[in-house]
Structures are given as C-alpha cells and as structure tokens.
Amino acid sequence: MKLFTLRPSQSEFERQVLPHLDGAYRLALWLVRDPATAEDVVQDAVLKAHAAWGRYTAGNARAWLFTIVRRSAYDGLRRTLVTVDVDDETAWTPEDAVHLRDEDSPETTLIAGEMARRLREALLGLPAVFREVIMLKDIEDMPYKTIAEVLGVPVGTVMSRLARGRDMLRARLVEVQP
C-alpha cells in the first residue's frame, strides 16, 4: 500500500518504516473496523512518524510505527465514534485468514468462506484490548516483547491478554456453531 512518495533524502525512513505499511494498515483496520478510516489512520501515523523521524533512536521501527498507528487509531475513535455493522462485508475481508488454491473444490471454497466469516465475526466481537493483541501475535507474528513495546504494557500483560483473548475467541466460535 503506497500512500505517498517521500523525498529521496528520506531513504533511511523509507528503508526502515515503509516496509511495515501493510501490517500497520491491518492493525488500523482491526482497531477501527472501516477500510477508509484505517487508510486515514495509517496516513496520519506515517506523517507523524515522518515528522518525528529526526527524534527516532535506533530500535524496532516496526514497533515504533505500530505504536503510532495504535495511538492514531484510538485518537480518531475518541474524536468520532465509528461503528460498523459486523455483517457489513466491506468492514473487513479475511483474505489473510483463508488461503484458497485453484484446485480447491467449490465445496471447499464455500466452507473456507463460511469459516472465515465466523472467525471475523468472533474476532470483531472481542473487546479491542484482546483483539489487538491477537492480531499482533497471531496475524503479524510479533514477539511478545515487541507487542509489549507497541502496547506500552509489561510482557506478562501481553501473555495474559493473549490467553484470555484466545479463550474468549474459542468460546465465541463454539457458541456460534450451527
């Protein structure tokens, strides 16, 4: 996802931050639940990151960007209450959750789509503190330490939220079984 072009003098920013835009967008989408708003959040976060680049100290640029995205998302949600119906197909497309092959039968494709829909509904039904930690760990594959850095909480809190979030997710998936 290319949002804008930076001046060539910003090559270090481009090298360290821009590769993480897709993950930043996924995080924003999980938090705000609206594709257009998520794009705005990422745009705002990248602009903030770019403006603060001179103060950035070498470290984990991915965690730094995700922290800015998270704060931008929550700031935006506080300013405007964004509500999206869980049944709204434009709210989130679980393209990363299900990987279909060309040789999959129509039945397999239908079952996978239904599973993705149920997973999406269950995830969107979780409180944000659990949804974001599941997203960062299970979708973005971040280490616990990095998640703790992004969220500004101890590693133990990350592990606790992840365990509780997964339990809640499991319970939601069991209760919606046909």
Describe this entry's structure for a reader.
It is a single chain. With 178 residues, the protein is mainly alpha-helical. It has one domain: Butyryl-CoA Dehydrogenase, subunit A, domain 3 (Up-down Bundle), CATH 1.20.140.160. Helix content is 65%, strand content 0%. The protein has helices spanning 11-16, 21-32, 35-52, 61-79, 106-124, 128-139, 144-151, 155-175. The radius of gyration is 17 Å and the shape is globular.
What's the short story on this structure?
With 178 residues, this protein is mainly alpha-helical. Helices cover 65% and strands 0% of the residues. It has one domain (8-175): PhyR, sigma-like (SL) domain (Butyryl-CoA Dehydrogenase, subunit A, domain 3), CATH 1.20.140.160.
List keywords for this structure.
single chain; 178 residues; mainly alpha; Butyryl-CoA Dehydrogenase, subunit A, domain 3; 8 helices; 65% helix; globular
